[in-house]
Design a protein that fits this description.
- By secondary structure, the chain is an alpha/beta fold.
- It folds into 2 domains: 2-68, Tetrahydrodipicolinate-N-succinyltransferase, Chain A, domain 1 (Orthogonal Bundle), CATH 1.10.166; 95-270, Hexapeptide repeat proteins (UDP N-Acetylglucosamine Acyltransferase, domain 1).
- The chain has helices at residues 2-13, 23-38, 56-68, 260-270, and strands at residues 44-46, 52-54, 72-75, 81-84, 98-99, 104-105, 110-111, 116-117, 121-122, 127-128, 133-134, 139-140, 145-146, 151-152, 157-158, 171-172, 177-178, 183-184, 189-190, 195-196, 201-202, 208-210, 217-219, 222-223, 227-238, 241-253.
- The strands form 5 sheets. A 10-stranded mixed β-sheet has the order 5-8-11-14-17-20-25-26-22-23, covered by helices on one side. Strands 6-9-12-15-18-21 form a 6-stranded parallel β-sheet, with no helix packed on it. Strands 7-10-13-16-19-24 form a 6-stranded parallel β-sheet.
- A hairpin with a 2-residue loop joins β25 and β26.
- The chain is globular.
- The N and C termini lie far apart (44 Å).
Length: 275
């Protein structure tokens, strides 16, 4: 609690003209990033009542970390180097994470033991749970939360939501399957077991339309548990005529009774989806 209050005080002071950070200030900020990196704390987490809470003070600490850091050379090998404020994670096997060459995770992100990183990018503040795979060229943006046993297929983009600090980040709960080239941004929340077919784009304003009943049911910013979703369109009338606006269609539901990984594939096959 003392660390939290220190960060909140520093954030207010940091906007004052001429303010400089003391060594103690810097140590407090760096402690938050270290705790994020180790998984001791996380930007957003699920409460006992099932609701997710976003810790604004941790986001503020990340923003302060950028202020106190300077660009420096980051050498991964004689042929691979970067020039940035935030170092990247280095791996020795003790973490229990399989890291394929060219997978990059920034310091201040957390990758739980049992996860697999194909050549991909994990930004600061992000969380990836055990048993999850971040597939080739997938991106997990700043503060995005990825649960256990999630598959992010090739080219998936989870948007970062560092600012505004009060905004909820992208949340992908346990056992979700995200198909190739899907985009999930602006704090969209996928409840557990969701399947997104290839190419689904979800923003905060995207209409997510459940078409499994006689009357459509519309969601925004949240996909209900075990939903199977494909790209779709909604026709809207404009002065120049009727045009299709991108939407997402809930066309079915995964069965709880079947094996998680098997049901992912079965759901896609049964509903004629490609991933």
């Amino acid at each position: 609690m003392m660390l939290q209050q220190s960060i909140l005080n520093l954030f207010e002071k940091s906007v004052t003209a001429g303010f400089t950070f003391s060594d103690t200030d810097k140590s407090s900020i760096q402690q938050v990033i270290t705790d994020l990196d180790s998984g001791k704390i996380r930007v957003c987490e699920k409460q006992a009542d099932g609701l997710w809470i976003t810790h604004e003070w941790i986001k503020k600490a990340i923003l302060l970390y950028f202020k106190i850091s300077t660009n420096q050379s980051i050498d991964l090998s004689p042929d691979i180097n970067f020039f940035d404020k935030v170092p990247v994670k280095k791996w020795n096997g003790s973490e229990g994470v399989r890291v394929v060459p060219l997978a990059i995770a920034r310091h201040g992100s957390f990758i739980e033991s049992g996860a697999i990183l194909m050549p991909s990018y994990i930004n600061i503040g992000a969380y990836v749970g055990s048993g999850s795979m971040v597939d080739t060229w997938a991106t997990v943006g700043s503060c995005a939360q990825v649960g256990k046993n999630v598959h992010l297929s090739g080219g998936v983009g989870l948007g970062g939501v560092l600012e505004p600090v009060q905004a909820q980040p992208v949340i992908i709960e346990d056992d979700c399957f995200i198909g190739s080239r899907c985009i999930v941004v602006e704090g969209v929340h996928l409840e557990s077991g969701v399947v997104l077919g290839a190419g689904v784009t979800l923003t905060a304003s995207t209409k997510i339309i459940d078409v499994t009943s006689k009357e459509p049911k519309i969601y925004k910013g949240r996909v209900p548990k075990n939903s199977v979703v494909i790209p779709g369109f909604e026709t809207k009338q404009y002065p120049a005529g009727a045009y299709g606006v991108p939407a997402a269609l809930i066309i079915g539901e995964r069965k709880e009774s079947t094996n998680k990984k098997t049901s992912l594939n079965e759901a896609l096959r049964d509903l004629n989806l490609s991933v």
